Amino acid sequence: MGNPEGAPAPEEQRLGPVVRRREQVQPGTTDQRLLDTPEEGSADWVHTDPWRVMRIQSEFVEGFGTLAELPSAISVFGSARTKAGSPEYEAGVRIGRALVDAGFAVITGGGPGAMEAANKGAREGNGISVGLGIELPFEQGLNPHVDIGVNFRYFFVRKTMFVKYAQGFVVLPGGLGTLDELFEALTLVQTRKVTKFPIVLFGTEYWGGLVDWLRGTVVAQGKASEWDLLLFHVTDDVEEAVALVTKETGL
After folding, report:
1. Can you tell me the distance from the alpha carbon of 241 to that of 98, in angstroms, rounded to the nearest whole number?
2. Confidence label for 235 from pLDDT (cuts 50, 70 and 90)
3. 101 forms bridges with which residues in the sheet?
4. What does pTM read for this prediction?
5. Quick one: how many helices (H) and strands (E) in the chain?
Protein backbone atom coordinates (compact mmCIF):
# COMPACT_ATOMS: atom_id res chain seq x y z
CA MET A 1 0.00 0.00 0.00
CA GLY A 2 2.89 2.32 0.60
CA ASN A 3 3.95 5.10 -1.73
CA PRO A 4 7.13 7.15 -1.41
CA GLU A 5 6.57 10.70 -0.28
CA GLY A 6 6.85 13.23 -3.06
CA ALA A 7 5.98 10.69 -5.74
CA PRO A 8 4.43 12.19 -8.88
CA ALA A 9 0.68 12.10 -9.40
CA PRO A 10 -0.55 8.97 -11.16
CA GLU A 11 -1.28 9.00 -14.87
CA GLU A 12 -4.44 6.99 -14.25
CA GLN A 13 -6.95 7.16 -11.40
CA ARG A 14 -9.76 4.70 -10.75
CA LEU A 15 -12.72 6.13 -8.82
CA GLY A 16 -14.95 3.11 -8.40
CA PRO A 17 -16.10 2.31 -11.96
CA VAL A 18 -14.79 5.64 -13.30
CA VAL A 19 -11.31 6.00 -14.85
CA ARG A 20 -9.60 9.42 -15.01
CA ARG A 21 -6.31 10.03 -16.82
CA ARG A 22 -3.70 12.77 -17.15
CA GLU A 23 -5.14 16.25 -16.45
CA GLN A 24 -8.46 14.79 -15.29
CA VAL A 25 -6.92 13.05 -12.25
CA GLN A 26 -8.47 14.51 -9.10
CA PRO A 27 -6.68 15.13 -5.79
CA GLY A 28 -7.65 13.01 -2.79
CA THR A 29 -9.94 9.99 -2.58
CA THR A 30 -13.59 9.30 -1.82
CA ASP A 31 -12.65 7.83 1.58
CA GLN A 32 -10.65 10.95 2.37
CA ARG A 33 -13.56 13.24 1.57
CA LEU A 34 -15.86 11.10 3.72
CA LEU A 35 -13.58 11.00 6.75
CA ASP A 36 -11.97 14.45 6.71
CA THR A 37 -13.36 16.88 9.29
CA PRO A 38 -15.31 19.68 7.58
CA GLU A 39 -14.21 23.26 8.05
CA GLU A 40 -15.43 24.89 11.25
CA GLY A 41 -18.88 26.34 10.79
CA SER A 42 -19.53 24.42 7.58
CA ALA A 43 -22.78 22.48 7.39
CA ASP A 44 -22.28 21.13 3.87
CA TRP A 45 -22.04 17.60 5.25
CA VAL A 46 -25.75 17.76 6.17
CA HIS A 47 -26.59 17.85 2.49
CA THR A 48 -23.86 15.59 1.09
CA ASP A 49 -23.60 12.68 3.56
CA PRO A 50 -27.08 11.25 2.79
CA TRP A 51 -26.04 10.95 -0.85
CA ARG A 52 -22.84 9.22 0.20
CA VAL A 53 -25.01 6.54 1.80
CA MET A 54 -26.42 5.77 -1.65
CA ARG A 55 -22.91 5.46 -3.10
CA ILE A 56 -21.83 3.21 -0.23
CA GLN A 57 -24.93 1.09 -0.78
CA SER A 58 -24.15 0.78 -4.48
CA GLU A 59 -20.64 -0.48 -3.67
CA PHE A 60 -22.05 -3.19 -1.42
CA VAL A 61 -24.55 -4.20 -4.10
CA GLU A 62 -21.84 -4.32 -6.77
CA GLY A 63 -19.55 -6.39 -4.59
CA PHE A 64 -22.26 -8.78 -3.45
CA GLY A 65 -23.51 -9.22 -7.01
CA THR A 66 -20.06 -9.96 -8.41
CA LEU A 67 -18.82 -12.30 -5.68
CA ALA A 68 -21.96 -14.12 -4.52
CA GLU A 69 -21.41 -17.09 -6.84
CA LEU A 70 -17.76 -17.64 -5.98
CA PRO A 71 -16.89 -21.13 -4.75
CA SER A 72 -15.09 -21.53 -1.43
CA ALA A 73 -12.27 -18.98 -1.36
CA ILE A 74 -9.27 -17.91 0.69
CA SER A 75 -8.12 -14.29 0.93
CA VAL A 76 -4.34 -13.88 0.62
CA PHE A 77 -2.74 -10.70 1.96
CA GLY A 78 0.78 -9.33 1.75
CA SER A 79 2.89 -6.34 0.84
CA ALA A 80 2.47 -4.49 -2.43
CA ARG A 81 6.22 -3.80 -2.17
CA THR A 82 7.28 -7.44 -2.38
CA LYS A 83 9.67 -7.69 -5.31
CA ALA A 84 8.92 -10.05 -8.20
CA GLY A 85 11.29 -13.00 -8.12
CA SER A 86 12.04 -12.66 -4.38
CA PRO A 87 11.54 -15.67 -2.08
CA GLU A 88 8.42 -14.04 -0.63
CA TYR A 89 6.98 -13.48 -4.11
CA GLU A 90 7.66 -17.06 -5.16
CA ALA A 91 6.06 -18.30 -1.93
CA GLY A 92 2.97 -16.27 -2.83
CA VAL A 93 2.84 -17.91 -6.27
CA ARG A 94 3.11 -21.37 -4.73
CA ILE A 95 0.43 -20.58 -2.16
CA GLY A 96 -1.96 -19.29 -4.82
CA ARG A 97 -1.50 -22.41 -6.92
CA ALA A 98 -1.74 -24.76 -3.93
CA LEU A 99 -5.00 -23.13 -2.81
CA VAL A 100 -6.47 -23.65 -6.28
CA ASP A 101 -5.31 -27.28 -6.28
CA ALA A 102 -7.11 -27.69 -2.94
CA GLY A 103 -10.36 -26.42 -4.47
CA PHE A 104 -10.34 -22.77 -3.42
CA ALA A 105 -10.70 -19.55 -5.35
CA VAL A 106 -8.04 -16.97 -4.44
CA ILE A 107 -8.96 -13.41 -3.39
CA THR A 108 -6.37 -10.66 -3.00
CA GLY A 109 -6.29 -6.88 -2.90
CA GLY A 110 -5.56 -7.01 -6.60
CA GLY A 111 -2.38 -4.95 -6.43
CA PRO A 112 1.29 -5.71 -7.14
CA GLY A 113 3.79 -7.55 -4.96
CA ALA A 114 2.54 -10.41 -2.80
CA MET A 115 -1.02 -9.90 -4.07
CA GLU A 116 0.09 -10.28 -7.65
CA ALA A 117 2.05 -13.39 -6.71
CA ALA A 118 -0.99 -15.15 -5.24
CA ASN A 119 -3.16 -14.14 -8.21
CA LYS A 120 -0.46 -15.41 -10.57
CA GLY A 121 -0.34 -18.77 -8.82
CA ALA A 122 -4.12 -19.09 -8.94
CA ARG A 123 -4.20 -18.24 -12.63
CA GLU A 124 -1.37 -20.62 -13.48
CA GLY A 125 -3.32 -23.33 -11.67
CA ASN A 126 -6.38 -22.60 -13.85
CA GLY A 127 -8.33 -21.46 -10.80
CA ILE A 128 -10.43 -18.40 -10.06
CA SER A 129 -8.24 -15.35 -9.43
CA VAL A 130 -10.03 -12.42 -7.78
CA GLY A 131 -8.74 -8.91 -7.06
CA LEU A 132 -10.53 -6.39 -4.87
CA GLY A 133 -8.90 -3.04 -5.62
CA ILE A 134 -9.15 0.23 -3.73
CA GLU A 135 -9.09 3.88 -4.76
CA LEU A 136 -5.80 5.36 -3.55
CA PRO A 137 -4.01 8.70 -4.11
CA PHE A 138 -1.18 6.70 -5.70
CA GLU A 139 -2.99 4.49 -8.19
CA GLN A 140 -1.68 0.96 -8.60
CA GLY A 141 -4.46 -0.68 -10.62
CA LEU A 142 -5.29 -4.37 -10.77
CA ASN A 143 -2.46 -6.72 -11.59
CA PRO A 144 -2.63 -8.63 -14.90
CA HIS A 145 -3.33 -11.98 -13.22
CA VAL A 146 -6.76 -10.93 -11.89
CA ASP A 147 -9.66 -12.57 -13.77
CA ILE A 148 -12.49 -11.08 -11.67
CA GLY A 149 -11.82 -7.57 -10.42
CA VAL A 150 -13.86 -5.09 -8.41
CA ASN A 151 -12.59 -1.60 -7.58
CA PHE A 152 -13.89 -0.01 -4.38
CA ARG A 153 -13.95 3.57 -3.16
CA TYR A 154 -14.34 2.74 0.53
CA PHE A 155 -11.98 0.59 2.58
CA PHE A 156 -14.73 -0.64 4.91
CA VAL A 157 -16.80 -1.98 1.99
CA ARG A 158 -13.78 -3.75 0.54
CA LYS A 159 -12.87 -5.24 3.93
CA THR A 160 -16.37 -6.65 4.26
CA MET A 161 -15.94 -8.45 0.93
CA PHE A 162 -12.62 -9.97 2.01
CA VAL A 163 -14.25 -11.60 5.02
CA LYS A 164 -17.74 -12.35 3.67
CA TYR A 165 -16.58 -14.24 0.60
CA ALA A 166 -13.57 -16.03 2.08
CA GLN A 167 -13.40 -19.04 4.35
CA GLY A 168 -10.02 -18.02 5.76
CA PHE A 169 -6.93 -15.82 5.43
CA VAL A 170 -3.34 -16.59 4.48
CA VAL A 171 -1.17 -13.62 5.46
CA LEU A 172 2.21 -13.13 3.80
CA PRO A 173 4.74 -10.58 5.11
CA GLY A 174 3.24 -7.12 4.70
CA GLY A 175 2.91 -3.62 6.07
CA LEU A 176 0.20 -1.53 7.66
CA GLY A 177 -2.56 -2.57 5.27
CA THR A 178 -1.76 -6.23 5.84
CA LEU A 179 -1.73 -5.70 9.60
CA ASP A 180 -5.06 -3.91 9.38
CA GLU A 181 -6.69 -6.87 7.65
CA LEU A 182 -5.00 -9.35 9.99
CA PHE A 183 -6.15 -7.70 13.21
CA GLU A 184 -9.64 -7.08 11.85
CA ALA A 185 -9.96 -10.81 11.17
CA LEU A 186 -8.52 -11.72 14.57
CA THR A 187 -11.00 -9.39 16.27
CA LEU A 188 -13.94 -10.86 14.35
CA VAL A 189 -12.93 -14.40 15.36
CA GLN A 190 -12.17 -13.41 18.95
CA THR A 191 -15.59 -11.79 19.37
CA ARG A 192 -17.26 -14.67 17.50
CA LYS A 193 -18.62 -12.45 14.79
CA VAL A 194 -17.32 -15.14 12.42
CA THR A 195 -16.73 -18.83 13.16
CA LYS A 196 -14.53 -21.47 11.54
CA PHE A 197 -12.26 -18.81 10.07
CA PRO A 198 -8.65 -20.02 9.95
CA ILE A 199 -5.89 -17.40 9.87
CA VAL A 200 -2.43 -18.52 8.78
CA LEU A 201 0.64 -16.27 9.02
CA PHE A 202 3.23 -17.34 6.47
CA GLY A 203 6.84 -16.63 7.45
CA THR A 204 7.98 -17.47 10.98
CA GLU A 205 10.96 -15.09 10.88
CA TYR A 206 8.85 -12.15 9.74
CA TRP A 207 5.94 -12.72 12.12
CA GLY A 208 7.97 -14.00 15.06
CA GLY A 209 8.51 -10.57 16.63
CA LEU A 210 4.80 -9.79 16.49
CA VAL A 211 3.89 -13.12 18.07
CA ASP A 212 6.50 -12.59 20.81
CA TRP A 213 5.07 -9.12 21.53
CA LEU A 214 1.52 -10.45 21.71
CA ARG A 215 2.61 -13.19 24.12
CA GLY A 216 5.16 -11.25 26.17
CA THR A 217 3.37 -7.91 26.40
CA VAL A 218 -0.30 -8.04 25.42
CA VAL A 219 -1.15 -11.38 27.02
CA ALA A 220 1.34 -10.94 29.88
CA GLN A 221 -0.32 -7.66 30.88
CA GLY A 222 -3.79 -9.15 30.70
CA LYS A 223 -4.86 -7.24 27.58
CA ALA A 224 -5.64 -10.53 25.82
CA SER A 225 -5.87 -14.17 26.86
CA GLU A 226 -3.65 -17.14 26.10
CA TRP A 227 -6.58 -18.52 24.12
CA ASP A 228 -6.31 -15.60 21.71
CA LEU A 229 -2.90 -16.88 20.58
CA LEU A 230 -4.71 -19.95 19.25
CA LEU A 231 -6.70 -17.84 16.79
CA PHE A 232 -3.90 -18.04 14.24
CA HIS A 233 -1.17 -20.38 13.01
CA VAL A 234 2.37 -19.57 11.89
CA THR A 235 4.23 -21.63 9.32
CA ASP A 236 6.92 -21.59 6.64
CA ASP A 237 5.47 -24.53 4.75
CA VAL A 238 3.07 -24.01 1.83
CA GLU A 239 1.51 -27.45 2.18
CA GLU A 240 0.95 -26.93 5.89
CA ALA A 241 -0.65 -23.52 5.29
CA VAL A 242 -3.12 -25.01 2.81
CA ALA A 243 -3.74 -28.02 5.05
CA LEU A 244 -4.59 -25.70 7.97
CA VAL A 245 -7.19 -23.70 6.05
CA THR A 246 -8.59 -26.86 4.46
CA LYS A 247 -8.91 -28.65 7.81
CA GLU A 248 -10.68 -25.76 9.53
CA THR A 249 -13.02 -24.97 6.63
CA GLY A 250 -13.92 -28.62 6.12
CA LEU A 251 -13.44 -28.40 2.35
Report:
1. 9
2. very high
3. none
4. 0.81
5. 8, 9
